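Regression test attached.
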Amino acid sequence: MTTIIPALPVNVRQTMLRQMLTIRQTENEIQGLFLANLVRGTTHLAVGQEACAVGTAAVLQDGDTVTCTYRGHHHALALGMTVKAMMAEMMGKASGACKGKGGSMHMTDASIGLLGANAIVGGQIPIAIGAGLTAQIKKTGAIAVTFFGDGTTNIGAFHESMNMAAIWKLPVLFICENNQYGEYSAVHKTTPITDLAIRADSYNMPGIIVDGQDAEAVYSVVKTSADRARAGEGPSFLELKTYRYQGHSRTDTGPYRPEGELEAWLKRDPIDILKNRMIDDGQLDDDEFAEMQHSAELEVHTALAWAKDEPFPTPEELLTDIYFEG
Amino acid sequence: MTTIIPALPVNVRQTMLRQMLTIRQTENEIQGLFLANLVRGTTHLAVGQEACAVGTAAVLQDGDTVTCTYRGHHHALALGMTVKAMMAEMMGKASGACKGKGGSMHMTDASIGLLGANAIVGGQIPIAIGAGLTAQIKKTGAIAVTFFGDGTTNIGAFHESMNMAAIWKLPVLFICENNQYGEYSAVHKTTPITDLAIRADSYNMPGIIVDGQDAEAVYSVVKTSADRARAGEGPSFLELKTYRYQGHSRTDTGPYRPEGELEAWLKRDPIDILKNRMIDDGQLDDDEFAEMQHSAELEVHTALAWAKDEPFPTPEELLTDIYFEG
Amino acid sequence: MTVITYREAVQKALADELRTDENVIFFGEDVAEAGGAFKVTPGLWEEFGPDRVRDTPISEQAIVGAALGSAITGLRPVAELMFADFIPVAMDQIVNQVAKYRYMSGGQFVIPLTIRSAQGGGAGFGTQHSQCAESWLMNFPGIKVVVPATPADMYGLLRGAIREDNPVYVLEHKALYNMKGEVPDDLQPMALGEARVVREGTDVTIVAIQMMLHRSLEAAEQLEKEGISCEVVDLRCMAPLDTATVLASIKKTNRLVIVEEAPHSSGWGGDIASLAADEGIYYLEAPVKRVNFGGSLIPYSPPLEDSAIPNVERIAHAIRSVII
Amino acid sequence: MTVITYREAVQKALADELRTDENVIFFGEDVAEAGGAFKVTPGLWEEFGPDRVRDTPISEQAIVGAALGSAITGLRPVAELMFADFIPVAMDQIVNQVAKYRYMSGGQFVIPLTIRSAQGGGAGFGTQHSQCAESWLMNFPGIKVVVPATPADMYGLLRGAIREDNPVYVLEHKALYNMKGEVPDDLQPMALGEARVVREGTDVTIVAIQMMLHRSLEAAEQLEKEGISCEVVDLRCMAPLDTATVLASIKKTNRLVIVEEAPHSSGWGGDIASLAADEGIYYLEAPVKRVNFGGSLIPYSPPLEDSAIPNVERIAHAIRSVII
Ligand SMILES: Cc1ncc(C[n+]2csc(CCOP(=O)(O)OP(=O)(O)O)c2C)c(N)n1
Ligand SMILES: Cc1ncc(C[n+]2csc(CCOP(=O)(O)OP(=O)(O)O)c2C)c(N)n1
Ligand SMILES: [Mg+2]
Ligand SMILES: [Mg+2]
């Protein structure tokens, strides 16, 4: 992890910490909702990966765009989706982010630049190429970020997109959250290399390894790559080494994890890392943190209670939004 | 081009030279057939790339398999398809290699290990994974070779296949004939790297650059990689630097070529390189070469005349070979 | 005679074929060590070993290609694409390669290949994880398509598909995995291409498969109380399609309702209707009705998803409409 | 009024839209500097520059994704996939992303996107380069499908497709590129979804598109001499489908023949037949016939390819069979 990490202003640190607490609280509630069958189908939690989202979001500006995956709740919240909109969407309510039509795997909010969470592995990556193309042609100075997992680096769409972004020097950041597993398979079982970042060499693109548990480390590398992209110097590939505490989805408990692995990662919890650093720097004390945690819980519980009472979409909604009717 | 080239036995050299002469003669006749509308649709010639085919074929053994592309006439002939079977297939005759159902883009002969020429860019590559899988599971000691072009290294199927072959340590040789162009686009316009061989690093696989105009250089590298694969040490990626003298297909004359490029490559003609080396080594004189050339012409002309008179398939053939009827 | 679930029937069919023929291999994403995303294939990796039962990277095109390449070189592969919604990710390999490979070569290859996927809606998986795929494959001669609706058919048809010396796509309906049913202990691999009259009737023919078949049977029960006698035909296999059984039923009932778990356009329902409008035209005494998604996609929201997928009431309503 | 080819109509429509709206961009494999594999798009790169008219790597999934992503962020992209046979290579992006993107988001996006491909047989391109793709796309609500048969329609419908604020797939028939036809100088972009009665008749309705439309018109000419009056309907757009025009014609002629350049199963012909068997049932006085590939693929060998694709004689034969 060869990156110097400049300390961020206290207000940025506070925002990142608050967001991580809200994300974790939200994800934990969602797991409960799934078990209670209030969230149907499937759901994928990002507990443990919060720093990847908040560190990136802190860099993004108006006009920048993001595409991500079914495991995208942390990105949506870090970008500014309200917990209410997310909780309502989780339960398929009319007031959800996607009017209840998307669900857990498709948290989308164009108004905050979140162009969509995708349920097809790799499906979101080519779409970011198009967002980067618009930025380049319209000279907006915006960048397009696309998040994906370690397992996704083995699918064709990833490769085609990396190459096209590179040859066109598009302002795209390919951010791989290497959480060590693709579903139930450890990355080394499906991928013959240890550091995915080296795949950037195939496209003559910078490939950088980042400590995904350290929000400030994520911020600093994303910032550098974003500035580079905005300056017209092209795309970058970032490998964020991270870990998901929960199973892959639904009721998976992660029986495939080696003894002690989770425990080791828990010692590098992204919330603790930032929290302790702020305490060391005299920017936070235990009471203030407890208060932060409390307000996160309050926000999530309020949103949850509200969302539960929200109405489902009316039947007519089935046939709307298929085509733009003008 | 960092490869030491051990001289091959004279009989191997003679075979390779004869095959190259036959291939070139055949390809030139095919162009005429296309212009005469006796070959319909499209056709893709490999004139200039002969050494890639004969150098590889000289390494292969019974049981080894090959998948290749629409630009695969040289491979078919090098593997042992008769000019008659090819010419008849070109014209859609019943006695063609594929009963006339395949045509110029699908020269296939399972009896010589040629598992198919594909008209979908990249389509042939995953199929070689399966051939390698059979060899590995049945421990046949066979290898699976798949040929593709420079432009094909930008398509998803290439990436997925490289990764799967590497993680399973399959006996597969990925042989890229980098003939400098994908259709009408120079490789540097579509691909942000100069040496495609470095893409092998993404899969922890050897990536070797070879002089594709030198049949013996091709032989020696393919041999080394084949032995490695047979020994269970996994796949290799070979980039054969070569050039197609003709246009991409049909009536393309190659207007996109920079001034003098073709001429420069003609100076490194694969037939001349081997011929002159044999002359220098006292293994060939001008009369013998003229004789070789003459017999190649004779073989091709005879086959062509024969094929022209062969019958087309009977109408019933339309509905056979869709399913195996047992 | 033992009672097992549709899910167990898949596992048993795979295990029995892996046991019977050493050329049978099985691979897909997380199908081996983890026993599959739907826990359909537990125990196979343990019994048959990592050479014959493999987990793959997330590379659908390479998975299908690996199946095709191994099938034409002497193995009898079974590949899994987890959700049928992922078929488009590997569509070229399936429809341009697998389905055409024998034909393009002039018959040089025998392709004993099976691909399996879970399909269908009703479980809240959302727009990209709930589709039925049989119609996507049927416009491509060269690949057979099987759609079992019961544990016994699942077992017999999957074994039949694996034994088949041609490419076969077996589509399993997610919503049926927990369905229990009797499977004779000596049940043999079944031939592909035979529909079955699941319920005899005289007034109207209902053609359906999988989840829609079971809902159609429920509708038939209800309508019996109203004095309407429904004959229900389970196609079981979409390619080859058993048109004789369908025609015989139309000849008998003179009325036809087709129930599809899919959008209306360019689906198999049109072929059944066109069969009726051609060879069956003189039997028909009422309009041919199709019950399907119409022009809608599958939304996540539970009540919306329920309204997209034909339910017993909608099916019954369509049937009544052709009786009066 | 000028006479131009179908090929020129494509180029003119693209040029006019690129000129009219600076948000229109165009990209694909070798479409820019080389002017396209079928020489359909010369001069665009020169006139509109390398930013708006681009050559791409051979990466169909990235091409379609680039179109989708740019469409939802303010551009109006036109992407080319050279041959329609390559649609399966990018199928996920087309049917799971482009077609579903607006719906899954609850209507957050407007997707003014057009994809173009050359399709169809008759030119000896073989099994993997001769298919017609319209039916592959029609089972996926969310994307419109246009199939012009004349230079004027090619021009008007392509411009209409580019102007359309929804995804549209425009399929151009290879065999028609050299066809000449009159195109009014002031021809405006056309609305999508309107079929056209190309030839009026009283005895039988023939529904067809593109190359099959022209062969059907020839058959109609022949049959007129035999005293059979054919009404020929060009669907022009497969999604949305103009069922009203088809029904009105069936009501008038009481007979229906459907001509498809594709295998029989799971194609649009079934939908036309099912329309006739449902709403049109009381108009029908003869079996509904479909002329298509049946269960065959497209072989390379010229005489075999000719026998696979419906020709004037086969079409005429089918028509006669419903008249007697
Ligand atoms: C094309 C496709 N193949 C398979 C799946 C099933 N699937 C869903 S998530 C997943 C694992 C992805 O792993 P990774 O890329 O590491 O992302 P993570 O879930 O770890 O965030 C798989 C195989 C899918 N949704 N799409
Ligand atoms: C999936 C797909 N996309 C595009 C094409 C059209 N096409 C045929 S050959 C070709 C160029 C391939 O270039 P390369 O891989 O370098 O092979 P070469 O023709 O030079 O041997 C293209 C784009 C195709 N056949 N298949
Ligand atoms: Mg992962
Ligand atoms: Mg090339």
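Expected vs. actual: identical. Chain C touches chain D through 58 residues (CB under 8 Å).
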